[in-house]
Amino acid sequence: MTQPASHFKTYLLIGVMILAGPLGNVLLGKGMKGIGTLAIWPPMELLRTGEKILSSPSIWLGIASLVTFFLAYMLALSWADYSFVQPASSLAYGVVALLGYLMLGEHVSLVRWAGIAVICLGVFVVGRTNPKTTSRQETADGAENHAMETA
Amino acid sequence: MRDFILFFLIVVAGTGGELFVSRAMKVVGEAPSLHPGKMLRVVLRALTVPWMWLGVGMMAVAFFALLGALSLYNVSFVVPVTALSYVAGAFGSATFLRERVTPQRWLGVFLVAVGVTLVFFGNK
Question: CB neighbours of A8 closer than 8 A, spacing ≥ 6?
Fold first, then answer.
Protein backbone atom coordinates (compact mmCIF):
# COMPACT_ATOMS: atom_id res chain seq x y z
CA MET A 1 0.00 0.00 0.00
CA THR A 2 2.90 2.33 0.72
CA GLN A 3 4.03 4.16 -2.42
CA PRO A 4 7.79 4.73 -2.85
CA ALA A 5 7.23 8.49 -3.10
CA SER A 6 5.54 8.55 0.30
CA HIS A 7 8.24 6.49 2.11
CA PHE A 8 9.96 9.60 3.40
CA LYS A 9 6.66 11.10 4.59
CA THR A 10 5.77 7.86 6.35
CA TYR A 11 9.11 7.60 8.17
CA LEU A 12 8.93 11.28 9.09
CA LEU A 13 5.45 10.82 10.56
CA ILE A 14 6.53 7.70 12.47
CA GLY A 15 9.43 9.75 13.85
CA VAL A 16 6.97 12.43 14.98
CA MET A 17 4.77 9.74 16.58
CA ILE A 18 7.65 8.12 18.46
CA LEU A 19 8.70 11.50 19.89
CA ALA A 20 5.39 13.34 20.38
CA GLY A 21 3.52 10.46 22.07
CA PRO A 22 6.11 9.79 24.81
CA LEU A 23 6.83 13.52 25.17
CA GLY A 24 3.11 14.08 25.81
CA ASN A 25 3.05 11.43 28.51
CA VAL A 26 6.22 12.75 30.15
CA LEU A 27 4.79 16.29 30.18
CA LEU A 28 1.55 15.00 31.72
CA GLY A 29 3.70 13.22 34.32
CA LYS A 30 5.64 16.42 35.00
CA GLY A 31 2.43 18.39 35.41
CA MET A 32 0.79 15.85 37.71
CA LYS A 33 3.89 15.53 39.88
CA GLY A 34 3.75 19.24 40.65
CA ILE A 35 0.12 19.20 41.71
CA GLY A 36 0.40 17.25 44.95
CA THR A 37 -2.42 15.25 46.51
CA LEU A 38 -5.57 14.96 44.47
CA ALA A 39 -8.64 15.41 46.66
CA ILE A 40 -11.81 14.29 44.89
CA TRP A 41 -14.26 14.53 47.78
CA PRO A 42 -16.31 16.60 48.68
CA PRO A 43 -17.30 17.85 45.19
CA MET A 44 -15.87 21.32 45.89
CA GLU A 45 -12.44 19.69 46.35
CA LEU A 46 -12.83 17.82 43.05
CA LEU A 47 -13.49 21.17 41.36
CA ARG A 48 -10.35 22.63 42.99
CA THR A 49 -8.32 19.64 41.83
CA GLY A 50 -9.62 20.00 38.28
CA GLU A 51 -8.76 23.69 38.38
CA LYS A 52 -5.21 22.92 39.53
CA ILE A 53 -4.74 20.35 36.75
CA LEU A 54 -6.04 22.68 34.04
CA SER A 55 -3.91 25.60 35.23
CA SER A 56 -0.70 23.61 34.72
CA PRO A 57 1.19 24.61 31.54
CA SER A 58 2.87 21.17 31.42
CA ILE A 59 -0.53 19.47 31.21
CA TRP A 60 -1.57 21.64 28.27
CA LEU A 61 1.76 21.09 26.52
CA GLY A 62 1.32 17.37 27.13
CA ILE A 63 -2.18 17.39 25.65
CA ALA A 64 -0.91 19.38 22.62
CA SER A 65 1.87 16.84 22.18
CA LEU A 66 -0.58 13.94 22.35
CA VAL A 67 -2.83 15.64 19.79
CA THR A 68 0.23 16.03 17.52
CA PHE A 69 0.93 12.33 17.99
CA PHE A 70 -2.64 11.44 17.12
CA LEU A 71 -2.67 13.54 13.93
CA ALA A 72 0.67 12.06 12.80
CA TYR A 73 -0.71 8.61 13.54
CA MET A 74 -3.86 9.13 11.51
CA LEU A 75 -1.89 10.59 8.58
CA ALA A 76 0.67 7.76 8.71
CA LEU A 77 -2.15 5.23 8.61
CA SER A 78 -3.66 6.89 5.58
CA TRP A 79 -0.40 6.23 3.66
CA ALA A 80 0.98 3.07 5.19
CA ASP A 81 -0.42 -0.20 6.47
CA TYR A 82 -1.32 -0.61 10.11
CA SER A 83 0.93 -3.66 10.30
CA PHE A 84 3.85 -1.41 9.34
CA VAL A 85 3.03 1.66 11.45
CA GLN A 86 2.09 -0.09 14.67
CA PRO A 87 5.28 -2.20 15.14
CA ALA A 88 7.42 0.84 14.30
CA SER A 89 5.65 2.78 17.03
CA SER A 90 6.40 0.11 19.64
CA LEU A 91 9.68 1.98 20.20
CA ALA A 92 7.62 4.60 22.03
CA TYR A 93 7.75 2.52 25.23
CA GLY A 94 11.53 2.80 25.24
CA VAL A 95 11.42 6.51 24.42
CA VAL A 96 9.05 7.26 27.30
CA ALA A 97 11.48 5.68 29.79
CA LEU A 98 14.41 7.53 28.21
CA LEU A 99 12.61 10.88 28.36
CA GLY A 100 11.48 10.18 31.92
CA TYR A 101 15.10 9.59 32.84
CA LEU A 102 16.47 12.60 30.93
CA MET A 103 13.73 15.20 31.54
CA LEU A 104 12.38 14.24 34.95
CA GLY A 105 15.44 12.51 36.43
CA GLU A 106 13.48 9.31 37.07
CA HIS A 107 15.43 6.32 38.29
CA VAL A 108 14.94 3.42 35.88
CA SER A 109 16.26 0.13 37.24
CA LEU A 110 17.94 -2.47 35.06
CA VAL A 111 15.01 -4.86 35.54
CA ARG A 112 12.60 -2.14 34.38
CA TRP A 113 14.70 -1.47 31.25
CA ALA A 114 14.63 -5.20 30.55
CA GLY A 115 10.84 -5.28 31.04
CA ILE A 116 10.40 -2.31 28.69
CA ALA A 117 12.56 -4.04 26.05
CA VAL A 118 10.38 -7.17 26.29
CA ILE A 119 7.22 -5.02 26.02
CA CYS A 120 8.59 -3.35 22.85
CA LEU A 121 9.32 -6.78 21.40
CA GLY A 122 5.84 -8.01 22.33
CA VAL A 123 4.10 -4.97 20.83
CA PHE A 124 6.23 -5.43 17.70
CA VAL A 125 5.14 -9.08 17.41
CA VAL A 126 1.47 -8.16 17.99
CA GLY A 127 1.65 -5.54 15.25
CA ARG A 128 3.38 -7.72 12.68
CA THR A 129 0.35 -9.98 12.58
CA ASN A 130 -2.24 -9.19 9.96
CA PRO A 131 -4.70 -6.83 11.67
CA LYS A 132 -7.53 -7.91 9.41
CA THR A 133 -9.07 -11.15 10.62
CA THR A 134 -12.70 -10.67 9.67
CA SER A 135 -14.36 -9.76 6.41
CA ARG A 136 -15.71 -6.57 7.95
CA GLN A 137 -13.91 -3.22 7.97
CA GLU A 138 -11.35 -2.82 10.71
CA THR A 139 -9.47 0.26 9.75
CA ALA A 140 -11.02 2.27 12.56
CA ASP A 141 -10.15 -0.46 15.04
CA GLY A 142 -6.44 -0.12 14.44
CA ALA A 143 -6.47 3.62 14.55
CA GLU A 144 -8.27 3.82 17.87
CA ASN A 145 -6.16 1.07 19.34
CA HIS A 146 -2.98 3.00 19.40
CA ALA A 147 -4.57 6.33 20.13
CA MET A 148 -5.61 5.01 23.51
CA GLU A 149 -2.19 3.62 24.14
CA THR A 150 -0.77 7.00 24.69
CA ALA A 151 -3.83 8.98 25.63
CA MET B 1 -6.22 -1.10 46.25
CA ARG B 2 -6.22 2.49 44.97
CA ASP B 3 -3.40 1.57 42.57
CA PHE B 4 -5.26 -1.47 41.37
CA ILE B 5 -8.38 0.62 40.63
CA LEU B 6 -6.35 3.25 38.74
CA PHE B 7 -4.51 0.75 36.52
CA PHE B 8 -7.68 -1.29 36.08
CA LEU B 9 -9.50 1.83 34.83
CA ILE B 10 -6.64 2.84 32.52
CA VAL B 11 -6.44 -0.60 30.92
CA VAL B 12 -10.04 -1.81 31.02
CA ALA B 13 -11.84 1.50 30.42
CA GLY B 14 -9.25 2.36 27.76
CA THR B 15 -9.52 -0.95 25.94
CA GLY B 16 -13.29 -1.10 26.44
CA GLY B 17 -13.53 2.39 24.98
CA GLU B 18 -11.55 1.32 21.91
CA LEU B 19 -13.68 -1.75 21.44
CA PHE B 20 -16.90 0.27 21.64
CA VAL B 21 -15.57 2.90 19.22
CA SER B 22 -14.41 0.10 16.93
CA ARG B 23 -17.84 -1.49 17.06
CA ALA B 24 -19.45 1.89 16.38
CA MET B 25 -17.23 2.40 13.33
CA LYS B 26 -18.17 -1.01 12.00
CA VAL B 27 -21.79 0.12 12.15
CA VAL B 28 -20.93 3.44 10.45
CA GLY B 29 -18.73 1.97 7.73
CA GLU B 30 -15.54 3.22 6.13
CA ALA B 31 -15.06 6.75 4.85
CA PRO B 32 -15.47 6.49 1.05
CA SER B 33 -12.61 8.95 0.46
CA LEU B 34 -10.47 11.52 2.23
CA HIS B 35 -12.64 14.32 0.86
CA PRO B 36 -13.38 16.68 3.83
CA GLY B 37 -17.13 16.76 3.17
CA LYS B 38 -17.39 12.98 3.07
CA MET B 39 -15.20 12.67 6.17
CA LEU B 40 -17.44 15.11 8.02
CA ARG B 41 -20.51 13.07 7.11
CA VAL B 42 -18.87 9.93 8.47
CA VAL B 43 -18.03 11.75 11.72
CA LEU B 44 -21.57 13.08 12.06
CA ARG B 45 -23.00 9.62 11.37
CA ALA B 46 -20.65 8.16 14.01
CA LEU B 47 -22.08 10.58 16.58
CA THR B 48 -25.54 9.04 16.15
CA VAL B 49 -24.31 5.59 17.19
CA PRO B 50 -24.73 5.00 20.96
CA TRP B 51 -21.64 2.70 21.03
CA MET B 52 -19.57 5.76 20.06
CA TRP B 53 -20.70 7.79 23.07
CA LEU B 54 -20.13 4.86 25.40
CA GLY B 55 -16.66 4.37 23.92
CA VAL B 56 -15.65 8.04 24.14
CA GLY B 57 -16.96 8.21 27.73
CA MET B 58 -14.83 5.22 28.73
CA MET B 59 -11.77 6.72 27.04
CA ALA B 60 -12.29 9.92 29.05
CA VAL B 61 -12.45 7.87 32.27
CA ALA B 62 -9.20 6.12 31.26
CA PHE B 63 -7.52 9.49 30.60
CA PHE B 64 -8.36 10.84 34.06
CA ALA B 65 -7.25 7.58 35.66
CA LEU B 66 -3.94 8.01 33.78
CA LEU B 67 -3.56 11.52 35.21
CA GLY B 68 -4.24 10.08 38.67
CA ALA B 69 -1.63 7.36 38.23
CA LEU B 70 0.92 9.89 36.97
CA SER B 71 0.43 11.96 40.14
CA LEU B 72 1.54 8.91 42.16
CA TYR B 73 4.15 7.16 40.03
CA ASN B 74 6.92 7.84 37.56
CA VAL B 75 5.92 8.03 33.93
CA SER B 76 8.58 5.41 33.08
CA PHE B 77 6.60 3.01 35.26
CA VAL B 78 3.01 3.99 34.43
CA VAL B 79 3.23 4.01 30.62
CA PRO B 80 4.88 0.56 30.22
CA VAL B 81 2.25 -0.93 32.55
CA THR B 82 -0.50 0.48 30.32
CA ALA B 83 0.84 -1.87 27.59
CA LEU B 84 -1.41 -4.40 29.36
CA SER B 85 -4.10 -2.96 27.11
CA TYR B 86 -2.66 -5.20 24.35
CA VAL B 87 -3.53 -8.17 26.55
CA ALA B 88 -7.00 -6.83 27.32
CA GLY B 89 -7.43 -5.91 23.64
CA ALA B 90 -6.67 -9.44 22.44
CA PHE B 91 -9.16 -10.96 24.87
CA GLY B 92 -11.72 -8.26 24.15
CA SER B 93 -11.52 -8.58 20.37
CA ALA B 94 -11.71 -12.38 20.64
CA THR B 95 -14.88 -12.25 22.74
CA PHE B 96 -16.66 -8.93 22.18
CA LEU B 97 -15.84 -8.38 18.49
CA ARG B 98 -15.57 -12.12 17.71
CA GLU B 99 -12.37 -11.63 15.76
CA ARG B 100 -9.95 -14.49 15.29
CA VAL B 101 -6.74 -13.80 17.22
CA THR B 102 -3.77 -15.45 15.52
CA PRO B 103 -1.22 -17.56 17.48
CA GLN B 104 1.44 -14.97 16.62
CA ARG B 105 -0.64 -12.22 18.19
CA TRP B 106 -1.09 -14.34 21.32
CA LEU B 107 2.71 -14.74 21.41
CA GLY B 108 3.13 -10.96 21.28
CA VAL B 109 0.49 -10.54 23.99
CA PHE B 110 2.35 -13.08 26.14
CA LEU B 111 5.63 -11.16 25.69
CA VAL B 112 3.90 -7.91 26.69
CA ALA B 113 2.60 -9.61 29.85
CA VAL B 114 6.11 -10.87 30.71
CA GLY B 115 7.54 -7.39 30.11
CA VAL B 116 4.94 -5.70 32.33
CA THR B 117 5.66 -8.23 35.08
CA LEU B 118 9.36 -7.33 34.88
CA VAL B 119 8.53 -3.61 35.01
CA PHE B 120 6.41 -4.25 38.09
CA PHE B 121 9.18 -6.08 39.91
CA GLY B 122 11.73 -3.55 38.72
CA ASN B 123 9.77 -0.93 40.66
CA LYS B 124 10.59 -2.49 44.01
Answer: none
